[in-house]
Amino acid sequence: MLQKELYFAAIGTGFTCLATVLGAAMVFFFRKEMRPVTQKVFLGFAAGVMIAAAVWSLLIPAMEMAESAGQNVLLHVGGGFLLGGAFLMLLDMLLPHLHIGSDEAEGLPSRWRRTTMIVLAVTLHNIPEGMAVGLAFSVAAQDAGSLSGALALALGMGLQNFPEGAAVSLPLKSQGVSAPKSFACGAASGVVEPIFGLITVLVASSITGLMPVILSFAAGAMLYVVVEELIPEAHLGEHSHSGTISVMAGFLMMMLLDVMLG
Q1: Residue-wise DSSP of 193-208
Q2: How many helices (H) and strands (E) are present in the chain, helices listed first?
Q3: Cα torsion for 199, 85, 172, 198, to the nearest 10°?
Q4: 170 Cβ neighbours under 8 A, 6+ residues apart
Q5: How far is C-alpha 170 from the chain's CA centre?
Q6: Could you tell me the pTM of the whole model?
Q7: Cα separation, 74 vs 68, whole angstroms
Q8: Could you read off the pLDDT of 15-36 as tens digits, one per residue?
Q9: pLDDT tens digits, residue range 52-95?
């Protein structure tokens, strides 16, 4: 059964990784980076997708699994949720990274190159995404009824990963980095998704009854990224209605996908 779960997780996370790679490939077709308004829209859309995914694809299944196993929902799901947020907060504090459009690096002091820290900033976002998609497809391998939800999650993540890959490669090219290197940096930011997706499935499968905790852990990590990074970046500068509308659009899209594929 574990082999089947890993196979399903590899397919799901491979798709979302491919979407990032295809987005990064836009560096070969466009010379200019995205306009600030366009970046706000994509960031807001990603936030809406991740909020919906955290609730429908992670927290609700985690609560149902915990209840069916006779576990304490508050302890296992609530505790996992808090641990996930704390884990991403710790990474955010320790890992040197630089957000696109910013001149001030975050994390511990480092002499790493600017391009490296920009890739790491996007990588932080992709860690919980990989965990979420990997877990969703792992559950689908055990329960065919969950496959529609996993497909909706992968499709939603893929749609927001495409512009995310471009959002890494295009600014790098505009700063003088060669097109092939800019593409490689953008593509590399998505590789972390299948890596963390498969690792998470292995951990969840090795300990009986741990799946509700791992699911809620991924949800907490995703919501930390949304609140700490995506929503603030979607509202940089003047008061932005485009950022708010795009958050709602991303959330609505995930709801529609869940209904259509359900």
Answers
A1: HHHHHHHHHHHHHHST
A2: 11, 0
A3: 10
A4: 26, 27, 30, 32, 33, 34, 182
A5: 20
A6: 0.85
A7: 14
A8: 999 999 999 999 888 766 667 7
A9: 888 988 899 899 999 998 999 999 999 999 999 999 999 888 88
